[in-house]
Amino acid sequence: MANRRPERNLRVAALPLDVVGGAAEQNVDAVREALERCVERGVDLLVLPELWPTSFPPSRAEGAALDAVLAEDAGAWRAVETLVRESGVWVVGTGLDRDPNGGDAAPARPVNRARLLAPDGTRAVYDKAHLFTPTAEHLAFCQGGERPSVVAGPAAHDGSPSALAMAVCYDLRFGAPLQQLPAAGVEVLVVPAQWPASRASHWRALVLGRAVELQCFVVGCNRSGVESVGRRGLALEFPGNALIASPDGEVLAEGDGSGALIVADLDLERVGRLRRDVPVGRDARCDLR
């Protein structure tokens, strides 16, 4: 009985994949292999990096070139949707999609869209709200207009749904849009990312800090590898330091740069216990905002 999983246990994994730009089939193959390992290990939720199918679009891609990238990205998602149905493992990652509010007169820029895929279909989407200007993301993407929200995620060991929210990479630096998540009952914040090695310490501090601040688990999936990114063609190295943190700021699992899958068990009851013991939400001074 010593190995019995807690009733509200959720087993999660993150794949700090070396995303190969413009090679969706190769990236899908890597996800397929990861999902096979997830099934073997009883994983409920797999988190992929930001823009895992094709990475960032080529510089100044527009018109037919952008259409081709969007089609490749969409094909990769369709392939993974099939794998999710077959495996029973939920998946979160981000990819490209057309701006839903663009209209015919809008610039031809896609959104960076996070998707929560369940075995019975897509459950939720979230468009990255904060665009990283040093790599000219604001010129390549349309920003999302909504804050992260809480949705029903994969069921815990007792059959009850987890309460999950999604943010994307640079969103992690901006605390205000995340502040409503604890009151909405968030238990797990999922953050796909392409966060460079030069600021790896910032990534680690922010993942752990948001876990403590929001009193929830944070599953951050940061890619590995090297790529020329953005319209300015910056060559960036990525550390592959996917990180799973507890509501107490404990590191439950962390990538070592190899791109290997990391796995951790989340005892979701810890969220409620901590919020009762340290009632940050009750003690907050809303009048000072």
Q: How many strands in all?
A: 14
The amount of helix comes to: 25-40%
Find the CATH superfamily. Carbon-nitrogen hydrolase
Structural class of the helices, strands and pairings? alpha/beta
Helix/strand order, N-terminal first = EHEHEEEHEEEHEEEEEEHH
- Strand fraction: 25-35%
So what's the CATH class? Answer: Alpha Beta
EC number: 3.5.1.111
InterPro entries: C-N_Hydrolase (IPR003010), C-N_Hydrolase_sf (IPR036526)
Organism: Rohdeia mirabilis
GO molecular function, one term: 2-oxoglutaramate amidase activity
Overview of this protein structure:
The protein is built from six helices and 14 strands. It is α/β, with parallel strands linked by helices and 289 residues long. The protein has one domain: Nitrilase/N-carbamoyl-D-aminoacid amidohydrolase, CATH 3.60.110.10. The strands form three sheets. A six-stranded mixed beta sheet has the order 5-4-3-2-1-14. Helix 1 packs parallel to helix 2. The radius of gyration is 18 Å and the shape is globular. The termini are far apart. The mean pLDDT is 92. Its EC number is 3.5.1.111. This is 2-oxoglutaramate amidase. GO terms for molecular function: 2-oxoglutaramate amidase activity.
What's this model, at a glance?
GO terms for molecular function: 2-oxoglutaramate amidase activity. This protein has helices at residues 24-41, 63-87, 137-140, 200-214, 269-277, 280-283; strands at residues 9-14, 45-47, 90-98, 110-118, 121-127, 151-155, 161-166, 188-193, 217-222, 224-229, 234-239, 243-245, 251-254, 262-267.
